[in-house]
Amino acid sequence: MNFSTWMSAIQQRTELALDGALPAPALAPGRLHEAMRYAVLGGGKRVRPLLCHAAGSIFGADSDTIDAPAIAVELIHAYSLVHDDLPCMDDDVLRRGKPTCHVEFDEATALLVGDALQTQAFQILSSRIPGIAPARQLDMLHLLALASGSRGMAGGQAIDLAAVGQQLTIGELEFMHIHKTGALIRAAVLLGAHCGEAMPDALENLGRFANRIGLLFQVVDDILDIEASTATLGKTAGKDAARNKPTYVNILGVTEAKAMASKLRQDAHDALAPFGEAALRLHELTDFIVERTF
Fold first, then answer.
1. Helices and strands counted in the chain (H then E)
2. What is the pLDDT of residue 33?
3. Residues 280, 222, 103, 89, CA torsion sign
4. Which letter does DSSP use for residue 24 in this model?
5. Which of 292, 240, 229 lies closest to 261, judged by CA?
6. What is the mean pLDDT of residues 3-10?
7. Phi and psi dihedrals of 90, rounded to 5?
8. Is 28 left (phi over 0), alpha (psi -120 to 50) or beta?
9. Is 34 in contact with 25 (CB distance < 8 Å)?
């Protein structure tokens, strides 16, 4: 199976799993459930589930086992997007090519959507997962909680909000994105590995890979924000520059930002060397992240 076919297959099974996990609009409160499904289904690259499945495949994990952590991490990501788009945060009106959740519904509903998606993620990850021992499942819950909270994604967003209009160093910017973007990407990789029999040294190597890939994803995002159109991105292009947010591009310039992306790409590939051909999908995802246009 080539990469494009594999990626499409994982994206489709993720969509089906998300559809089955989210409450139906017919269930009360119907408007909230409708808004949750609006925010999650029918869009997105599903990079985190792809990373989860790719890492799990290294250790022979069954796809049915990986589905639960894959959609749990995607629900956390979706909740973060809903909240990030709110007027009190980034105040955006377009996400994945359609009106943002608070525009389509209202701000209060969007706030509750984020809250509900976050708890739905932990409901899924705490339910019985065939093939996962209870002690390992507890480790997985801890991993996702840490990646999502003040020492992970939420903390990174707080740093990001405080940095608007500020001049950050590259080190400070990296610290912010290790938390805001990288923590959840790292969790996706390690959650997939936990679905198989990954040993501590393997998890350490994957952690190094995930740290590089998390920063790489953000550097490429910063480049696309100024080079791609709103229609291509499915969200408002140039928004970071308009809000005077620190990015790799406005600190380094486009040429140096692209050079940094190239270095991070090679570092990510190098971190996968101990896994040989078993890490093929992670190698391919690394290249996809760099070469994507949206």
1. 16, 2
2. 98
3. positive
4. P
5. 292
6. 97
7. -90, -10
8. beta
9. yes
Domain ranges of the chain: 7-291
* String of DSSP letters for 94-134: EETTEE-HHHHS-HHHHHHHHHHHHHHHHHHHHS--TT--H
273 pLDDT more than 80:
yes
Q: Class of 7-291 per CATH?
A: mainly alpha
Instruction: State the Cα–Cα distance between residues 271 and 90, nearest whole angstrom.
Output: 34
Residue 239 is predicted with a pLDDT of 77
Enter the tokens of residue 36: 């949750």
* pLDDT tens string 104-153: 999 999 999 999 999 999 999 999 998 899 999 999 999 999 999 999 99
Residue 238 reports pLDDT greater than 80: no
Most confident of 22-36, 188-202, 238-252: 22-36
96 Cβ neighbours under 8 A, 6+ residues apart = 42, 43, 44, 234, 235
| Residue 84 phi, psi (nearest 5) | -60, -35
CB neighbours of 46 closer than 8 A, spacing ≥ 6? 10, 11, 14, 15, 74
The answer to whether 58 and 35 have CB atoms below 8 angstroms apart is no
